[in-house]
Specification:
Blueprint lengths: L26 H12 L7 H16 L3 E6 L10 H22 L3 E6 L12 E4 L2 E4 L21 H22 L5 H12 L8 H16 L12 E6 L3 H6 L1 E3 L6 E3 L4 E4 L9 H7 L5 E5 L5 H11 L8 E5 L6 H15 L4 E4 L7 E2 L5 E4 H18 L3 E7 L8 E2 L24 H16 L1
Parallel strand pairs: 1-2, 1-14, 2-5, 5-8, 8-9, 9-10, 10-11, 11-14, 13-15
Antiparallel strand pairs: 3-4, 6-7, 12-13
Helix pairs in contact: 1-4, 3-4, 3-5, 3-12, 5-6, 9-10, 10-11, 11-12
The structure holds erythose-4-phosphate, phosphoenolpyruvate and manganese (II) ion (MN).
Length: 446
């Protein structure tokens, strides 16, 4: 029998308040889909999940740096080989730059292979006097603004499972088959720094070149670097889906959510006594929790009590999304409280979700400089307090979309309309993603 085939024990989350869940019109169909999912093979394995925990424990200590990136909302439409490859390629390029900048390993985690469910600030959306349920991600309902598309359909969870599986399959082929070879990745970055907009990164790229030549001359076995570890993560929003994907590991008797290596709880569902925290408290995966600017030290300590009561290394990541204006004021208080508590966790900066604005043309967007300012604030606060800035978490795509303002290409408000393709939040495009990596690499060195 496979290590993760055994049934799981009953869950306690069902008694708790659960925010942001779809209102399915057909409860029987939901139960059928959940039963079907329960019988399907796991998407990830306990051993892989444990490896990620070890990597996260390193990041906690400052011996590795975490890079989490991918779409705000993956879509079924964009579940193509080209899209997956471009996104993976972007994350690997960023990781190569960061690895060199930090002189430490980079833990590469995609918001990929399962990022299909979205919390929303409003339950409904109104256009031209017509009000419909909000789009909640492709695993819940459809994006088109029609009454039919917006009805939540449990069948979509099965589609999401299958697409997550095919995405993971492709990721595994790319990262295990030599495509992610450091030499390849470095040559992609060389092309990037030749762009005049990125002149200031040229010397950095030359340094990496020199280091690679030195490694080659010193007889480093580059073939041993042909394979890279790449992990999948998503927001554990749909309780029925995550519960149905939970399996008991027959070796250890522990429960794992096998829908992804790492799961996180969003800012809107992180109540310490609520269902999402109860669900993830019961599984052995590394878990993240997003915390916004109103989070109190008491709330954070209560989350630690529930999610990492025994202070196990590599278990808990706190993803701060404070907004550039507030991070320097609100983060120190939380860090001090965690330090006094003593249980370890990994601090990761999400500089996207506290910095969303609406352009005068109506597009939901973010400014590159504001995003960078939040990352800078994150580093400043950690440096000042002597704690570890453990990683970054960004929304990105490998395409040349025009969703985030600024960056080396100086995308302005008029250009947003050119290629605005996201289904929910604006993403860094390929160039903006690499630019962030170079900037963060410089911060890591500083
Ligand atoms: O991705 C995150 C959330 O789903 C998103 O920021 C909420 O956006 P909304 O305010 O458009 O619902
Ligand atoms: C919903 C998200 O973030 P948050 O929970 O921090 O708002 C997200 O990561 O897309
Ligand atoms: Mn988002």
């Amino acid at each position: 029998m496979n290590e993760l085939d055994a049934p799981r024990t009953p869950a306690s989350w069902r008694d708790r308040p659960a925010a942001q869940q779809p209102s399915y019109p057909d409860a029987d169909r939901l139960a059928e889909v959940a039963a079907d999912l329960r019988s399907r093979p796991p998407l990830v394995f306990a051993g892989e999940v444990d490896s990620l925990r070890q990597q996260m424990a390193k990041a906690e200590r400052g011996d590795a740096f975490v890079l989490m990136g991918g779409d705000c909302a993956e879509s079924f439409r964009d579940n193509t080989a080209t899209n997956i490859r471009l996104k993976l390629q972007t994350i690997l390029q960023m990781a190569a730059v960061l690895t060199y900048g930090a002189s430490t390993p980079v833990v590469k985690i995609g918001r990929m292979a399962g990022q299909y469910a979205k919390p929303r600030s409003a339950d409904t959306e109104t256009r031209d006097g017509i009000t419909l349920p909000s789009y909640r991600g492709d695993s819940v309902n459809g994006h088109p603004f029609t009454p039919e598309a917006r009805v939540p359909d449990p069948q979509r969870m099965l589609d999401a499972y299958l697409r997550a599986g095919t995405t993971l399959n492709l990721i595994r082929s790319f990262t295990m088959g030599g495509y992610a070879d450091l030499r390849e990745v470095h040559s992609w970055n060389r092309g990037f720094t030749a762009n005049p907009a990125y002149k200031r990164f040229e010397s950095f790229a030359e340094e990496i070149d020199r280091a690679m030549r030195f490694m080659a001359a010193a007889g480093v076995d580059f073939d041993a670097l042909r394979q890279v570890d790449f992990y999948a993560s998503h927001e554990a929003l749909l309780l029925e889906y995550e519960d149905a994907m939970t399996r008991e590991d027959s070796r250890s008797g522990r429960l794992y959510d096998t829908s992804a290596h790492m799961l996180w709880i969003g800012e809107r569902t992180r109540g310490a006594e609520d269902a999402h925290v109860a669900l993830l408290a019961g599984v052995h995966n590394p878990v993240g929790v997003k915390v916004g600017p109103t989070t109190t030290p008491e709330e954070l300590l209560s989350l630690i009590d529930h999610l990492n009561p025994h202070g196990e290394a590599g278990r808990l990541t706190v993803i701060t999304r404070m907004g550039a204006e507030r991070i320097r004021d609100v983060l120190p208080v939380l860090i001090e409280a965690v330090r006094a508590d003593g249980r370890p966790l990994t601090w990761v900066a999400d500089p996207m979700h506290g910095n969303t604005i609406t352009a005068e043309t109506g597009y939901k967007t973010r400014e590159f400089d504001t995003i960078m300012d939040e990352v800078r604030g994150f580093f400043e606060v950690h440096r000042c307090l002597g704690t570890v800035p453990g990683g970054i978490h960004v929304e990105l795509t490998g395409d040349d979309v025009t969703e985030v303002l600024g960056g080396g290409e100086h995308i302005d408000v008029e250009r947003l309309a050119e290629r605005y393709e996201t289904l929910v939040d604006p993403r860094l495009n390929h160039q903006q993603s690499l630019e962030i990596a170079f900037e963060v690499a410089e911060m890591l060195r500083g």
